[in-house]
Automatic annotation (TrEMBL):
InterPro entries according to UniProt: Papain-like_cys_pep_sf, Prot_inhib_I29
Superkingdom: Eukaryota
Native source species: Rotaria magnacalcarata
Signal sequence residues: 1-20
Keyword Protein transport listed: no
Family matches, as Pfam families: Inhibitor_I29 (PF08246)
Record bears the keyword Chloroplast: no
Keywords from the UniProt entry: Signal
Domain Cathepsin propeptide inhibitor, chain residue ranges per copy: 244-300
Protein name, UniProt field: Cathepsin propeptide inhibitor domain-containing protein
Amino acid sequence: MHQLSVLITILLIVIASINAGPVLRDGLPSRYHVSGVIQLPYAEISEPFESWIDVEAGFSRIDYYGGAAKTVQRKGRGQDYGANYKIVPMSDEQVLNKISCFQSNGSQADIVDVQHTLPDVSTFQDMGSAEWRGIKCEMYQTIDQVGDKKSTYTYYIDVASKHPVHYEMFGYDSLIGSHFDKYTIDYYNYDEEPIDPTVFHVTDGMTCTGFPGPGLEHTAPHVLFNPMSEYINRRSADYIESSFEQFKKNHEHKYDSELEHRQRMKIFRQNVRYINTRNRAALPYKMKLNKFADRTDDELRVLRGRRYTKGYNGGLPFPK
């Protein structure tokens, strides 16, 4: 009888462990699948994605534009510092849109980790109940203040299902008196079901090489290989600042004040993001940054339009 009760207890524990959801680690589920749309209003971009994250397995995968671009992150363990993989169609003089694999290995100073697509709420403050587009949610928020720049991150979770709903970032610069950055993510199709390991082995049978570009001239390699790292749980410095300094040096751009510098960098940031996301969309062309990446729309209109000169231009009078 005692043995029977022990067996029943063990069976109940096994059933409970099967039915239980993944354990939270650092405010994040250890295993989940979710789709969503990244929206960059200043760059006029909506980028769909689908993601699979398995912390225990040490892998994450994020597909953009329905799989037109795939990225895989293999977590570093011990002396293996991990690797980032990018699978995209590439063209050259011989082939058109050949599916190619590119690899960037981690290092002791930059160990690769799984890339979450949900924010780490352990650093957020619980703001109580709120509604998002008619959905009753729990709202979490954190604020990051660096000098004149204030970044506010807000995350909404469905009260009933505990599923992610919406995430947004607003960056306000008091010097220029406006937002320097803004992006949002809407989530859907969330689940915590076991993930087939083959999901993460999309590079099997492929030879992966270093990434030839375009993009390396204006974007940090870790962002090119892992675009989501720019938006979710960012742990590295803002690469845009160093990229903008290099852009200014390359094209000999100088500004009259710190105010103009920040305004130009805001424009540059959105142009870089626009180029990177369009290059992930498997379009029949690739985009590249040029010397006008810090210009306003009005300045570009002047360059595209005809300049008017007062006085007689030598032409015949218009017939009446």
